[in-house]
Amino acid sequence: xxxxxxxxxxxxxxGGLGKAFHFTRDxxxxxxxxxxxxxxxxxxxxxxxxxxxxxxxxxxxxxxxGKPRSIEAFTGTVRKIQSSRTVVMWxxxxxxxxxxxxxxxxxxxxxxxxxxxxxxxxxxxxxQYNAIPSQVEITLYxxxxxxxxxxxxxxxxxxx
Length: 160
Description:
By secondary structure, the protein is α+β, with helices and mostly antiparallel strands. Helices cover 27% and strands 34% of the residues.
């Protein structure tokens, strides 16, 4: 039996957004209810989902992590901001034989603007930046402590 067949429907990533932001149906359901899923808590604390997946619904998880962390939701229209900058780096030895070189870095930002003109912004990876639609209204679930996006819900329904 393949690994894909062994997975429950709730453990399968949710399309391009799920793969880019690393969330599942169970994660999204927990986020909609206002808290972080156990799997997301494990991930935040550096424990991989694959290795400790069996602990997610175990009483051990409740004992170690206590009550699930609360999260926040923000609904707004997406604005994508990409910028590039040149960083001058110095590479060389202690005897003056170093070289300067320029490196171009890219910053990817997702900004959501609510109807009351409040904004939230997040730095994201290039993969996340490319996966999220622009100029549409979405709901973004995030951890306010770590300022990390947990899941994203587009205007269309993600559930089957």
